[in-house]
Amino acid sequence: MAFSATTTIDSGIAKITMAGQLDASMAPVFQREVENAEAQKVKRLVLLMSELEYISSAGLRALVFAKQKMGRGVDLYVVGAQPQVMDTIRMTGFDRSVIALDTYDAGIIENI
Amino acid sequence: MKPSTVPATLDSLGAIAEYVMAAAASAGLDKRASYRLRLAVDEIATNIIVHGHTKAGLQGALELRADIDDRTLTLAIEDTGIAYDPRQAPVPDTSLPLEQRPIGGLGVYLAMKSVDEFLYERVGDRNRSTFKMHLSSAPIEEEGRA
User: Fold this and answer.
1) What is the model's pTM?
2) What CATH number does the domain located at B4-145 have?
């Protein structure tokens, strides 16, 4: 059972590539990446989720934290989430606060 | 399935997930139902570990047990942490934007919504949390009986 998160930041856009299983034992790994992006004062936070197989509320809490720290001006994108992961995001109502895309769309995301 | 006992630490969540997914496979649950059962058990196990043990200064174990019959997959967790009935947790307002959300409360909410039935009992010094998933009847068997 493993989880990884790697961040690249370029032109005010932070992209976090998430892979594996994000449960409470792995949430601190994701939280660190989110905090790192927040500290860089990015304008967009993009979560690349196509390799993410599982997310629990512990992972979702990091998103609440991100949104609260970064404020209204920062858009949060969820890209390529698997159906079960998207179900969980919908059940919590988070889909109303994030922009969900099937694939990475530079025309939308990089249009700052 | 053979019961399994794991220490009440977050490092056990991986082993708990493996146990649940093996039970879901034995019962023939589909991918979506398997995921939801895993989510519910993971959330409640996390609560038992964090609130029932670690934050209460207690050490202990979670005993997992899965029973499968024709109609139902029943998965139970027993522990000796502090008593807590997740059914009494306040329901979070999922219509609020993330900026206005309290940090906690989502896990229990997800767990309650994800399984067909959830039961909690305090028996002596033990908590028993029970998750049930209804198994859809297999069409081939139905035809065979007709």
Assistant:
1) 0.92
2) 3.30.565.10
